[in-house]
Amino acid sequence: MSPSSLFQPRSARDVADLVAEQPLAWIVSGSAGALAATPLPVQVECDTDGQPLRLLGHFARSNRQWRVFAGDPRATVLLIGPHGYVSPSWFADRTRAPTWNYTSVVFEVDIELRDTPEDAERLLRGLTGDLERERAGAWRVEEMGERYLGLREYVVGFHAHIRASRATFKLGQDERDDVFDDILRGLWDTRQHALAAWMRRFDGGRGAGAVASIEPQASPIDPEIAGFIDNVIAEGRRLTAGRVLDWPARRAIAEQVRRPWREGGPIPARIEDILADTCHGPVRLRIHDPAPGTAKPTLAYLHGGGWAMFSLDTHDRVMRELAARSGMAVVGIDYALSPEVHYPVALEQVVDVVRWLQAHGARHGLDASRLALGGDSAGGNLSTAAVLMLRDSGEGDRVAAVLSYYAGFASDYSPHSCRRYGTDTDMLTAPEVDTFWNHYISRLSDRNAPYANCLLAELEGLPPFFIGVGECDVLAEQNLTMAGKLLASGVGVEVKLYRGAPHSFIEAVSVSSIARQALEDSAVFLRRIFGLEGTVPGSPHPPVSVGSSA
Predict the structure, then answer these.
(1) CA 398 from centre of chain
(2) What is the pLDDT of residue 228?
(3) What is the torsional sign of CA 459, 460, 466, 471?
(4) Residue 66 half-sphere exposure, CB side, CA atoms within 13 Å?
(5) Which residues share a beta bridge with 502?
(6) Cis peptide before 339 (omega within 30 of 0)
(7) Structure pTM?
(8) CA angle 356, 362, 364 (to 5 degrees)
(9) Is 377 among the residues known to form the active site?
(10) 236-247: buried (b, 16+ CB within 10 Å) or exposed (e) per residue?
(11) How far apart are CA 192 and CA 209, in angstroms?
């Protein structure tokens, strides 16, 4: 087999995916000595078999190159994808020479100019829609207002009909197995993950050993929780059936998948839904009161779900368990979900609910003068952000304690965490973390806002925290980091690491002894904070307690 044949695409899909991943291309026209070239973003349209048919794009009307195509439609489109220098310093065999791995494609095309307002509209919307999809605070052309109509007049669209193409995927196919493995490890070590991913795509499985040798070893998930995780993931995929769903449809499936897991458990004497007024309109609350008519503190609880999923129903069992175990009234807060709303709407709703409970809770049988705030995942983030906002507005004494399970405290995660516990087989994947954050925040800069990215906040003066961490969770590192920052800031912290527990593990309370222990640990913390009967003997809340639950 010749070297050039080794580097050919395996299917038309390889070429189409390369264009989608790296859409900036050179449009080249003219004869030798009179060449014209313009770098432009393009989209690819394919037939039903994935074979590229045409490239779509647009020129600025002021660019004279487009006028040439009225007389001679021929052009060459050049595109280079992920590429990188391969250093012999990566090799065990240092007699090897350096090389360069790369992906590229050359299209020979006929340019058909599409110079009508309708064409410009369709091409501009298509391109911006593709490039803005899944971005934080994704931009829409409507936001330009009347300026967009003017902009549209200054572009000339085109369809570049593909006559022929030559693609090259030089990705180590001609290297010995040991050298190939060294290259792959070198790319991982230098964080050239895009090029490494293309090498794996073309390696026929031979790079698996190299990747396995540098993959951080994940701890095994507790068998009781594993059954819950496997069921939830499998049932979600079955109902999704490979479709691309909007958020209401995703939520409906999430509710259906989790319905069996919220059944059973303690039933408090009183369950009631009420409404609380906030600056963003009324918010539904659900009261779980284990002993109506008796004085008791209140825990306001915020469900997880990446600020975009889940509800009072998905977390009803968790809230009933907390009410029964702590002896407190637990009030679930049905905050507004993203992407229909963005940061800081949900956070401001939570802060307003805290104020509303303390002003009006008594008429609903709640003692909100003794109030804790808690939540899991996104709810843990909102709980922490709310006490930060209250502290900064001079209302820090409104909340006496914070209860947090595996919160999303920051918008990023280490490559180690991603590769260890953020894979496609995990309960919370690294791409899901990115998607949830991008839909929650209003704009990219919100990733650095201390009320969103709580690890960036000053933490002095906050109430004591209980932080429950799942060992096998992509967010475990940031939870342990938050515990350390709180401790360094003089805040009382009790942090428990639950061995073999992944993200969302407390939802497995019906089958998991670890989930039941985590809920009991947090209930003990709350009883101690509020001096309730059954408090663990000893001193008041200590400055820090670090523990691990096997």
Answers:
(1) 31
(2) 97
(3) positive
(4) 20
(5) 472
(6) yes
(7) 0.87
(8) 85
(9) yes
(10) eeebeeeeeeee
(11) 18
The rounded radius of gyration (Å) of the Cα atoms in the chain is 28
* 541 token code pair: 């809340």
The mean pLDDT value of the chain amounts to: 94
Lookup: tokens for 23: 């859409």
Q: Which residues of 484-497 are buried (b: 16+ CB within 10 A; e: fewer)?
A: ebbbeeebbbbbbb
CA 197 → CA 184, 385, 417, 424, 550, distances in Å?
A: 9, 37, 18, 15, 36
Question: C-alpha distances in angstroms, 529 versus 175, 359, 492, 525?
Answer: 63, 22, 11, 6
CB atoms closer than 10 angstroms to residue 161:
15
Give the tens place of pLDDT for each residue, 469-513: 999 999 999 999 999 999 999 999 999 999 999 999 999 999 999
**115 is annotated as an active-site residue:** no
Q: At what angle do helices 513-530 and 316-326 cross, to 10 degrees?
A: 50
CA distance 449 to 47: 45
Q: Which of 17, 203, 289, 473 is catalytic?
A: 473
Q: What is the pLDDT of residue 530?
A: 97
Tell me the C-alpha distance between 387 and 391, whole Å.
6
Element (H, E) at 254: helix 247-258
Report the distance separating Cα 122 and Cα 155, nearest Å. 12
Question: Is there a catalytic annotation at residue 193?
Answer: no
Among candidate residues 29, 326, 338, 377, the one labeled active-site is 377
pLDDT of residue 547: 54
Q: What is the pLDDT of residues 222-258, one digit of tens each?
A: 999 999 999 999 999 999 999 999 999 999 999 999 9
pLDDT in tens, 390-434: 999 999 999 999 999 999 999 999 888 988 999 989 999 999 999
How far is 67 from 80, CA to CA, in rounded Å?
A: 26
pLDDT band at 278 (very low <50, low <70, confident <90, very high): very high
Classify residue 223 by its DSSP letter. Answer: H
Contact yes or no for 126/114 (Cβ under 8 A): no
β-pair partners for 78? 26, 106
pLDDT of residue 148: 87
Measured CA to CA, the distance from residue 43 to residue 40 in angstroms comes to 10
Tokens 């770098």 — which residue? 39
For strands 24-29 and 465-472, give the pairing.
unpaired
Question: What's the pLDDT at 537?
Answer: 37
Element (H, E) at 415: helix 415-421
Report d(CA 184, CA 181) in Å as an integer. 5
| Catalytic site residue from 503, 512, 521, 522 | 503
- The predicted structure's pLDDT at residue 1: 47
Q: Is the peptide bond before 297 cis (omega within 30 degrees of 0)?
A: no
CA distance 148 to 146: 5
H helix or E strand, kind and range, residue 332:
strand 329-334
Helix (H, G, I), strand (E, B) or coil at 287: strand
Residue 532 main-chain phi, psi, to 5 deg: -85, 160
